[in-house]
Amino acid sequence: MSNKSTALIVGASRGLGLALAEEYCIRGWQVIATSRGSSQGLEKLQGSFGASLEVEQVDIVDLDSAKGLRQRLDARELDVLFVNAGICKANELNALQVEEKDYLDMLLTNALSPMRLIELFYDRLNAKGVAAVMSSELGSITDAKGFWELYSSSKAALNMLMKHFHSRHVDDTRALLAIAPGWVRTDMGTDNALLDISESIPLVVDVVARNAGVPGLRFTDRHGNELPW
Ligand SMILES: NC(=O)c1ccc[n+]([C@@H]2O[C@H](COP(=O)([O-])OP(=O)(O)OC[C@H]3O[C@@H](n4cnc5c(N)ncnc54)[C@H](OP(=O)(O)O)[C@@H]3O)[C@@H](O)[C@H]2O)c1
Fold this sequence. Notes:
Elements: E1 6-10, H1 15-26, E2 30-35, H2 40-49, E3 53-57, H3 63-72, E4 78-83, H4 100-121, E5 125-134, H5 149-168, E6 175-180, H6 201-211, E7 216-221
Helix pairs in contact: 1-2, 1-6, 3-4, 4-5
NADP nicotinamide-adenine-dinucleotide phosphate binds at residues 11, 13-17, 35-37, 59-61, 84-87, 109, 134, 136, 181, 183-184, 186-189, 193.
């Protein structure tokens, strides 16, 4: 285990997170994948990859749960920290129509909680490590076109928090990424999405790999093209 690069994937029970865990396993990494309940997908992966895949439990909106994970992994050094977990509620509604709780849940899950994970685990990343969050093309304020507006604003908030985090670590050697995976067919992306998971996640992992050892913050798509904030 000690010679392998290690990735911590937060929110890996299904969808893009599960695919990230699988892709890193396929590439020979040691993977710590989190879920917040049982995950048939992760159980199946463990069947294929054995001890190379460790499964941890965390609910990212529960700060004590996040701190507990940090404590359990206190002795670990990470090459990649990828916070993938996210939700989409009331995607077709506007500010007047949405239930307040649904909007607050999105802000908590998609913006505040991922940044808490980045804050908590940043010192576990090695000097050439990459801290990535799963953002979205929809998180770009410049490119916003009135699609899934409330969800988009939660990803814009995530991007803004990454900007401020970077400002506090501007001389650091580690890379920070807000990655947009494209519109992908998952429970969240729906069957209408343009891409299969296999057309997104291997490219996302390539982008992370190319950014190792390249200091600074970038908002990038799955091809490594920088996106307008
Ligand atoms: N699919 C797309 O087209 C697309 C495009 C751009 C960005 N994204 C982003 O990519 C990420 C993954 O999306 P997806 O399409 O794979 O969605 P998904 O299939 O709905 O999966 C969401 C994942 O997030 C986890 N999660 C949600 N809330 C959590 C919490 N409080 N604590 C821990 N884990 C939590 C879920 O765990 P449970 O199984 O426990 O619910 C699940 O593993 C999200 O951040 C999403 O916003 C997706």
